[in-house]
Amino acid sequence: MANDSTRNIASDANLTSQRNRQGRRFAILAVLLAIAGAVGGWFWLNRDQAPVVLTVATGPFGSDAHVLMSEVADVVERHSDTLRLSVRATRDPSQNIALLNRSQIDTAVIRADTPVVACRPWHPVCDHHRDSDVGW
Fold it and tell me: How many C-beta atoms surround the C-beta of residue 69 within 10 A?
C-alpha cells in the first residue's frame, strides 16, 4: 500500500514537471514571436521612404536670405536621408507671410521687425480658411 501511494506521488510529480516544461516552452515561443514581430515592425516602419520636403520662402533670388537658405538646403541634403529643403524665391517678406497664411509653404525667412498677421480661425482675415481642409 505504501508502494502505491509512492507511485501516485511520483506520477503526479512527473505530470506537474511535464506541464511546467510545456508552459516554459510556450512562454519562450511567445516571447520569441513577440521579439520577431517587434523587429519586423521596426524594419517595416523604417523601410526606404521618400524624404520629407519642406518648402522655404526666402525673398528675391540672389538675396542674402536666398543664398543662405540654398546653402542650408545643400548641407541638409548631404547629411540627411529623410529631409530636403526646397528653397523658393519670393518678391518680399510680405509675400512670404501671405504664402504661409495660405499654407503654400512650410516655413519662411523674414526679418524679426516685420509685422506679421498670422491666421487664426477666429481672425477676420482668415475667413477663407474656415471652409478649407485645414481642420479648424
Answer: 23
